[in-house]
Write a structure and sequence with these properties.
The complex is a heterodimer. Chain A has five helices and no strands. Chain A is mostly helical. Chain A has one domain. In chain A, helix 3 packs antiparallel against helix 4. Chain A starts with 7 loop residues before the first helix and ends in a 9-residue tail after the last helix. A six-stranded mixed beta barrel of chain B has the order 2-3-8-5-7-6. The model of chain B has no long low-confidence stretch (mean pLDDT 86). Classes of the chains: A mainly alpha, B alpha+beta.
Chain lengths: 112, 413
């Protein structure tokens, strides 16, 4: 099965998002998140893990990657709002990612 | 059901892969072990110290205000020159405070000195001798394991009696019952009438275990109660329903009146409360936590790269096996699950070893230093969560690559 050719825009936005995942990983056990409650590190960690998985999917031009990214981004933003930690800059990368993915959505593959 | 059988089969595959490459497995999980160890040990120490401080502060009394010369402030900009000429609280101020205060439940005047305590041929140096007025038992929370507290008559008369701590009793009297025996402090005989219940070491203030409590009216014959060195203070417990702010406001007025301070003059006394102590520790814990978080966080990321690397090697080694599995009908998700479980298991194993190390070290620290360091539930859950997640993240790319292999090309490799 031949893999779809990945557009340059998707490559760039994926690399940026990968960097954010790696930088953001230590945040899941930061003292601030730990103070929120016993389940919060696991919750943010799971979101981050699925975020990473979705990036792998989008990197390989798979539609499931785009879906997972959209869901995790929505949950993440809602959670940040809920704990009163949402700032405007938090939405820039997800918005860029979602709009880029949407633009190339039709070129993406349905299979796993 | 289907997921269960896939999980079981994947688990067995992963287990055999890990067991057949023991050295490689151990080396690759070391990164996670060190990362989890670093981060959880720092969190465990911080959590335990915070808990100990809270307990110690609670034993001092959360609704207790201390009138002292020096305020409990922390930091490098402590303006000591403003406080050094202040008078120390005097024992004669206590009756006036008691008479005028409406919000105080009880108050006591105390001084602290360190001295050698002797009994027959045994002696202990540097023991905290606390001299108190009668209502000390109404201000400070404590229990006695044997004997009794001073009666009002004994306190007023300044009898040579003492209540001693558990460590003092054990060190001086060994197997003998201390009640009724006489200890010697500065060459004076003092009868033991009570023993405090064991409290354990205290981070804030002095532990009752290493204390000898004597009536202030007896101590005034031996020491100068106005000596700055003895840290004289008045401890005041607020009545139920009265908060510390209200009590402090009332005490400020009374103290200013007693000391006849002019309206524009600064207070020449400090009103301290236990919450100031715990607040003083917060910046220290924040810095330690941050350092542990950064060090541990990067160790875990490095460990994750190690696992990803070993998983790529594992996929390369088993490419022909993947080809055979696929040709026999194995679905992509089965191959994906198999490698993902392997990486999660590897990471989890590393995390659990890290946790075990923290537990063992905490155990030995408690044996030798009795610091009360305990690995709590939230840190165990955090370590397991982080291990599983790093396994999932670092194993996904190799697992996905394996799942996408072409069966024919995979078998040929």
């Amino acid at each position: 099965m031949k893999e779809k050719v990945r557009p340059v825009a998707i490559t760039i936005i994926c690399i940026v998002a990968f960097a954010f995942v790696i930088i953001g990983f230590p945040n899941i056990f930061s003292p601030f998140i730990k103070k929120l409650g016993i389940g919060y590190p696991a919750l943010f960690g799971t979101i981050l893990a699925f975020n990473f998985i979705s990036l792998v999917g989008v990197w390989h031009m798979k539609k499931w990657g785009a879906y997972i990214y959209l869901i995790t981004a929505m949950i993440n933003q809602s959670l940040l709002l809920l704990i009163n930690r949402w700032v405007f800059t938090d939405i820039i990368v997800p918005l860029l990612f979602i709009s880029t993915t949407y633009y190339y959505y039709k070129q993406m593959d349905n299979n796993l | 059901m289907l997921f269960g059988s896939i999980f079981k089969e994947s688990f067995l595959f992963a287990y055999h892969a890990l067991v057949s490459n023991k050295l490689r497995t151990i080396l690759s999980l070391l990164g996670i072990t060190i990362g989890i160890f670093a981060i959880i040990s720092v969190f465990t120490v911080i959590d335990s110290l915070e808990k100990n401080i809270r307990t110690s502060v609670a034993s001092l009394g959360e609704n207790v205000v201390f009138i002292q010369k020096w305020p409990w402030e922390f930091g490098k900009d402590y303006p000591w020159w403003k406080y050094m000429n202040r008078p120390v609280p005097a024992v004669v101020e206590l009756p006036e405070l008691q008479r005028r205060s409406q919000y105080a439940e009880a108050m006591t005047f105390t001084i602290n000195a360190n001295n050698t305590v002797k009994f027959e041929n045994n002696s202990i140096e540097n023991i905290n001798i606390t001299c108190v007025s009668h209502d000390y038992n109404k201000v400070k929370t404590f229990e006695l394991q044997d004997g009794r507290y001073f009666t009002e008559m004994e306190s007023t008369a300044g009898r040579n009696i003492a209540v001693i701590g558990d460590n003092v009793a054990k060190s001086l009297f060994e197997n003998k019952n201390p009640i009724g025996e006489s200890i010697k402090i500065i060459g004076r005989k003092i009868s033991v009438i009570g023993i405090f219940k064991k409290e354990g070491s205290s981070i804030v203030g002095k532990s009752l275990d290493d204390m000898v409590l004597i009536p202030i009216n007896y101590a005034r014959n031996i020491v100068d109660l106005r000596s700055d060195r003895l840290d004289p203070m008045v401890m005041i417990r607020a009545k139920d329903g009265i908060n510390n702010e209200a009590l402090k406001s009332e005490l400020t007025g009374i103290m200013r009146s007693i000391r006849k301070l002019k309206p524009l003059a600064d207070d020449d006394f400090a009103l301290n409360e236990t919450s100031m102590l715990s607040k003083g520790f917060d910046p220290i814990f924040e810095i330690i936590g941050l350092a542990g978080w950064i060090i541990g966080g990067f160790s875990i990321i490095v460990g994750g790269f190690g696992i990803a690397n070993i998983m790529f090697v594992s996929v390369k080694e088993r490419t022909n096996l993947i080809g055979i599995q696929k040709s026999l009908g194995a679905k992509n998700y089965f191959i994906l699950t198999q490698f993902l479980i392997e990486s999660v298991l590897l990471s989890l194993l590393g995390g659990l070893i890290g946790l075990l190390l923290v537990f063992i070290i905490a155990f030995f620290i408690n044996i030798f230093a009795d610091l009360g360091i305990t690995l709590n539930q939230s840190n165990v859950i955090l370590a397991i969560t982080v291990s599983v997640l790093i396994g999932l993240i670092s194993g996904f790319v190799p697992a996905y690559t394996a799942s996408q292999l072409d069966p024919v090309e995979a078998m040929r490799s």
